[in-house]
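Quick note —
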Amino acid sequence: LMGYGWPGNVRELKNLVDRLALLAAADGVIRLSDLPEDVWNYRGAEPATLAEAEARTIAQALEYTGGERKAAAKLLGISRSTLYEKLARLGPKLADVD
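Predicted structure written out below.
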């Protein structure tokens, strides 16, 4: 239940809990089969890889600083040389950042 996106928000969750309470009334057990398939089979967004998250963070810092690498490094809390190393390593991933 925690991993589901709940597009209907709280109302959808409340309706499902009410339904599950009725189904579980007999023996007090809620089974996976009691849940709608879209809830138990929910995949959600794929988690970003560490490299993708790092590239996105660096790209955001560079955008925020207007491309000033020294300021971006300071904002990120890393040295300028570390930023240059990361830029060299993440080059292709940085190109894919939205």
